[in-house]
Amino acid sequence: MFMCAASAEDVALVKPAEVAEYTGNGFKVLDVRTTGEFAQGRIKGAVLVPLMNRTEDGQMVPNGAFEQQVQEKVSTDHGWLVVCGSGMRSARACKILTQKLGFDRESLRDVAGGMQAYASAQLPVEQ
User: Fold this and answer.
1) Are 68 and 76 in contact (CB under 8 A)?
2) Is the pLDDT assigned to residue 64 strictly greater than 90?
3) pLDDT for the residue 9
């Protein structure tokens, strides 16, 4: 595990190879990619709450219901690994979780490199 140096509000990053260790210790996976990306493959047991949605013409737009959906689907009773495609959206999602929704940053981990790095490491993906 290592920390991003960008700000004190950043959550710890975990390498894709560490995901199984964290999930084995009770962490759940929050996937903030689009529904289409999620359908192409995900970490086993991941909960989908898209930070962005893709429009019919392919544009990415913010999911206006993100905070509400997190409150409905994501419990604070355990830790969460937050993952996206490459790491950008998960970092933004972690900021929202800590700054707006009151999550303890110690209970969150951002998966470094997102699903691109996870898949490149040939780790298990479910469809």
Assistant:
1) no
2) yes
3) 57
Structural domains in the chain, CATH included, are 2-120 (3.40.250.10)
| CA-to-CA dists, residue 68 to 6, 49, 64, 123, angstroms | 27, 10, 9, 31
Tokens representing 59?
A: 């544009």
Q: Is the pLDDT of residue 7 over 50?
A: no
Structure tokens of 124? 């298990």
Amino acid letter at 123? Answer: L
Rg (CA), the chain: 14
Name the active-site residue from 14, 19, 74, 84: 84
Average pLDDT over residues 51-63: 95
Told to judge if 94 belongs to the known catalytic residues of this protein, a careful annotator would answer no
pLDDT the model gives residue 3: 41
